[in-house]
Every structure is written in C-alpha cells, then in structure tokens.
C-alpha cells in the first residue's frame, strides 16, 4: 500500500469502518510510514478537539432570537442604495425555511475570493475531479436524502444539506467521507440521465476562483469550470462549499444546478 492509496481513507480508518483484513493492511503501512502516521495523529487530535467543542454549553435561545431580530432590522448602504439586511439575507437562502433560519444561513455565508482570469488549475478542482473519477466504494447506500444527511452527522464538522433536485431528475445513490486538501469532506453520488454526478461538500473559506468563471443563476453566483473534460459547478452556502462534477454537457450541468437552487 502506498501513501496515495492510504490518504483518501484516513477518515474511514479512524472511524474503524474497515474489516479486520483491510485494517491490518492500513496498520502495516502506518508501521513503516511516519508521514501517514502524522496525518492520522492530526486527524485524531482534530476529532478530539471537535468533540470538546460540541460539549461546550450553547448560548441561551433568547440571545439567539434577539440577535436575529436586530439583524433583520439592520439597514446598510450598498453602492449608494439603501437596503435592509433582511432583503440581503433572503437573497442568499438556498433551502426555504423560517426567516430566522435564513438569517443564520446568510450570516456565515463566505464570499468567493476572485483571482485573475488567467489563473492556472485550482488544486481543489483537481482533487474534486480525482474523487469523481476514483470510483471509491460508497459507505452509505440509500436514495433517501435525510438518511444520507444523518449518516454524516459527527463525521464532518458541518451540517450536510443536500442539493434539492426535482423529483426524478437526479437519482441519489449514497455517500462517503472524502478529503479535499486538509479538509474532511462529504462526498455524495447521484445518477443523472445515465451519467455520474458527484457532489462534494467542504469548508472552502478563502477559495480563489477565476473572475471570468463566475456566472449568475438567478440571485446566486456560481463558478463554472472544466477540468480533464469534466464540468464542475461550484457554489457556497451556509459556510460550506459545494462542487458538482459530471461528464454532462456544460449547459446541462448548469441547468441542473439552477434547478437545485429553485
């Protein structure tokens, strides 16, 4: 087993999801590879810190409601035009819900960092396509979006909210843990018109994208790229970056993304 074989499955190893034979192979590699041992130790340390954070007391509910009320009434200047913060929050909500929930979504929404149009291939996009092509085994297999979201609880440090595709448009196959750079990610697989559509969710704060790749879909900015002949659509919501990768034609992929935003 090489480091390239080992690295994508560090999370699965840590979560003890391998059978005895596979785990023995992983441990044999760890026994002679200090680099991978260091990665495993870092992941274990991160998981312990994350659990510690979850055990911390939450702020009182009344405080949260008071902050929501204040934000909903706040006004600001935008290019000389006066708008309410409430309107801006409504603009960025992906999943319909109560106003308070939409406020919470928008407060933590990151912005794309724009790079020059001539920027080279993005490492994140390269890895996204590698995961799409990897044919890695799914760790949860179900067509029920709620079951997939629940499976990821405690395995990633963000809430996994799947894109909302119209019924019958995309068939959900399941998901697994993935890694993008040093970040743990949720990998979700769909089948669309006989083609694979993979969706990766991960924290992407500060992600740089070429300025000429940004397209507006309704009220949302979506980055549309092509890498190794595969189309990639990238957007951000609730502090989480979503990448959708497929061999579908670009306009077909863009239309599918637009449907998920309705």
What is the N-to-C succession of helices and strands?
HHHHHEEHHEHHEEEEEEEEH
Number of domains: 3
What's the alpha carbon Rg, rounded to whole Å?
20 Å
Beta-strand segment tally? 11
Span between N and C termini? Answer: 45 Å
Quickly name the level 1 CATH class of the largest domain: Alpha Beta
The largest sheet is: 7 strands, antiparallel
The secondary structure category is alpha+beta
Helix content: 25-40%
Number of helices: 10
Strand order of the largest sheet: 4-5-6-11-10-9-8
Description:
- The chain contains 10 helices and 11 strands.
- Residues 76-119 have low confidence and may be disordered.
- The chain has 262 residues and is α+β, with helices and mostly antiparallel strands.
- The strands form 3 sheets. A 7-stranded antiparallel β-sheet has the order 4-5-6-11-10-9-8, with helices on both faces.
- It has 3 domains: 3-54; 61-107, no CATH class; 113-261, 2-Layer Sandwich (Phosphorylase Kinase, domain 1), CATH 3.30.200.100.
Topology summary:
Elements (H helix, E strand, L loop, with lengths): L2 H4 L3 H5 L5 H12 L2 H21 L6 H13 L1 E4 L2 E4 H8 L6 H9 L5 E3 L7 H11 L11 H8 L18 E10 L2 E10 L2 E8 L5 E3 L3 E4 L2 E8 L2 E8 L2 E7 L3 H12 L1
Parallel strand pairs: 3-7
Antiparallel strand pairs: 1-2, 4-5, 5-6, 6-11, 8-9, 9-10, 10-11
Helix pairs in contact: 6-7
């Amino acid at each position: 087993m090489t480091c390239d074989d080992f690295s994508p499955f560090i999370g699965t190893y840590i979560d003890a999801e391998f059978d005895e034979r596979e785990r023995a192979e992983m441990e044999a590699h760890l026994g002679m590879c200090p680099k991978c041992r260091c990665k495993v130790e870092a992941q274990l340390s991160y998981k312990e810190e994350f659990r510690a954070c979850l055990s911390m007391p939450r702020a009182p509910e009344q405080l949260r409601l008071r902050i929501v009320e204040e934000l909903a009434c706040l006004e600001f200047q935008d290019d000389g035009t006066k708008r309410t913060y409430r309107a801006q929050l409504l603009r960025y909500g992906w999943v319909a819900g109560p106003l308070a929930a939409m406020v919470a979504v928008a407060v933590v929404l990151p912005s794309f960092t724009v790079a020059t149009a001539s920027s080279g291939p993005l490492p994140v996009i390269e890895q996204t396509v590698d995961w799409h092509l990897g044919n890695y085994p799914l760790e949860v297999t179900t067509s029920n979006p709620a079951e997939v979201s629940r499976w990821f609880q405690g395995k990633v440090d963000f809430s996994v909210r799947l894109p909302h595709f119209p019924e019958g448009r995309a068939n959900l196959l399941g998901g697994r843990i993935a890694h993008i750079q040093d970040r743990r990610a949720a990998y979700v697989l769909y089948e669309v018109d006989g083609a694979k559509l993979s969706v990766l969710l991960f924290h992407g704060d500060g992600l740089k994208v070429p300025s000429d790749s940004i397209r507006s879909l309704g009220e949302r900015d979506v980055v549309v790229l092509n890498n190794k002949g595969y189309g990639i659509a990238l957007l951000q919501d609730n502090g989480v970056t979503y990448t959708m990768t497929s061999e579908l034609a670009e306009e077909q992929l863009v239309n599918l993304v637009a449907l998920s935003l309705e």
